[in-house]
């Protein structure tokens, strides 16, 4: 990772101030959540309006939970997403990537080193903690992964670290795990679904700054 800037994804955008902060401070990806149980859920029309304000090279990621083709088609008719982020089976993820002609990222919840996947059949995997037993959604629960599980882990594919990250801990997380990219949602919010521009600025800066030992 020497000399390579850590990639940053800000997920769960619902309003203009947060999106504009992502543009201003140089996020690599912004995420829209198309899962109705999430406090960060956004309609395709709302996402279209926000996406029209994106400038530069920021890529648009749509997050879906076990979507059928109809759901994906309805959203893509409104929003030209660059990437589809999925909670689904590996087989279904490959099928969706082929059918819709867009890169797919698959979210992989882990609790131990044995859960770390050896292979990746889509563009990228998101490594995050397993949700609580009674959680109503598979991700976005503000849980922090045990980063030591990833110390020295060097898979032969693209991946991203997610789960419980915030401006205060992201530099240490990158230092311990060697994550080439990081994903944050609730960790840069002032209220559920409402992003803090200041927290976004600090998160992006700290993700790309080495941890102080």
Q: Which terms would index this structure?
A:
TIM Barrel; 27% helix; 10 strands; 213 residues; alpha/beta
Explained architecture:
Strands 1-2-3-4-5-6-7-8 form an eight-stranded parallel β-barrel. The chain is built from six helices and ten strands; from the N terminus they run E-H-E-H-E-H-E-H-E-E-E-H-E-E-E-H. Helix 1 (16-25) links the parallel strand 1 (7-11) and strand 2 (29-33). The longest helix has 11 residues, at 90-100. The two termini are 18 Å apart. It has 213 residues and is of the alpha/beta class. It has one domain (7-130, 139-207): Aldolase class I (TIM Barrel, Alpha-Beta Barrel). Helix 1 (16-25) runs parallel beside helix 6 (197-207) and helix 2 packs parallel to helix 3.
Instruction: State the end-to-end distance.
Output: 18 Å
Q: How many domains comprise the coordinates? A: 1
Low-confidence stretches: none
Beta-sheet strand percentage?
Answer: 15-25%
Question: Largest sheet, described in full?
Answer: 8 strands, parallel, barrel
Proportion of helical residues = 25-40%
- Using the alpha-carbon principal axes, give the shape: globular
CATH homologous superfamily title: Aldolase class I
Number of helices: 6
The main sheet orders its strands as 1-2-3-4-5-6-7-8
SS elements, strand count: 10
Secondary-structure arrangement, i.e. CATH architecture:
Alpha-Beta Barrel
Structural class: alpha/beta
The CATH class: Alpha Beta
C-alpha Rg (nearest Å):
16 Å
In sequence order, what are the helices and strands, one letter per element?
EHEHEHEHEEEHEEEH
The whole-number mean of residue pLDDT values reads 92
Say what the CATH topology is.
Answer: TIM Barrel
């Amino acid at each position: 990772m020497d000399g390579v800037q850590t990639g940053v994804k800000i997920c769960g955008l619902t309003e203009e101030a947060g999106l504009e902060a992502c543009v201003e401070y140089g996020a690599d990806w912004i995420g829209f959540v198309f899962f109705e149980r999430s406090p960060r859920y956004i309609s395709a029309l709302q996402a279209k309006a926000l996406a029209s304000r994106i400038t530069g090279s920021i890529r648009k990621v749509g997050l879906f939970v076990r979507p059928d083709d109809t759901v994906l088609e309805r959203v893509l008719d409104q929003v030209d997403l660059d990437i589809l982020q999925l909670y689904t089976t590996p087989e279904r993820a490959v099928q969706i990537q082929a059918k819709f002609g867009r890169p797919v990222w698959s979210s992989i919840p882990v609790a131990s080193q044995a859960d770390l996947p050896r292979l990746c059949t889509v563009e990228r995997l998101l490594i995050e903690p397993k949700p609580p037993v009674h959680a109503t959604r598979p991700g976005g629960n503000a849980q922090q992964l045990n980063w030591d599980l990833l110390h020295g882990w060097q898979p032969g594919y693209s991946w991203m670290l997610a789960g419980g990250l915030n401006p205060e801990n992201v530099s240490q997380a990158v230092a311990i795990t060697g994550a080439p990219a990081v994903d944050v949602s609730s960790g840069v919010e002032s209220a559920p679904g409402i992003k803090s521009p200041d927290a976004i600025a600090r998160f992006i800066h700290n993700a790309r700054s080495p941890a102080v030992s």
